[in-house]
Design goal:
The chain is of the alpha+beta class. It has a single domain, classed as 2-Layer Sandwich (Translation Initiation Factor IF3), CATH 3.30.110.20. The protein contains 3 helices and 4 strands; from the N terminus they run H-E-H-E-H-E-E. Strands 1-2-4-3 form a 4-stranded mixed sheet, covered by helices on one side. Strand 3 and strand 4 form a beta hairpin. Helix 2 crosses helix 3. The protein starts with 8 loop residues before the first helix and ends with a strand.
Length: about 100
């Protein structure tokens, strides 16, 4: 599928990475819980910009309501540079939350 805007292959290859988008938090909570139930020992929640607060909500709902044995092992924040449609570059905040059993 040439010419289409696609996520880079390295960004989507890990099954234990959950990318937060526009869905409701509970949809992502289900994805995280499913990963742990399928035997994953650690799951990464990644988000950028406005979805950062949803990522934090997902991590807290998983820990407090569904899997109390899961701990936040690491939180990393950074700034990523994105290309806009007009050719300029914009900076956006990003977060990665590592949850582990």
């Amino acid at each position: 599928m040439e010419g289409q805007n696609q996520t880079s292959p390295e960004a989507r290859k890990d099954p234990n990475v959950i990318y937060i988008g526009k869905k409701s938090a509970m949809g992502y909570v289900l994805a995280v819980v499913t990963q742990f139930n399928n035997g994953q020992k650690e799951v990464y929640i990644k988000a950028r910009g406005k979805t950062i607060s949803r990522a934090v909500d997902v991590a807290e709902i998983v820990r407090n309501r569904f899997l109390p044995e899961v701990k936040v092992e690491n939180v990393s924040i950074k700034t990523e540079e994105l290309d806009s449609e007009d050719g300029s570059k914009s900076k956006v905040s990003a977060i990665e939350i590592k949850l582990a059993k």
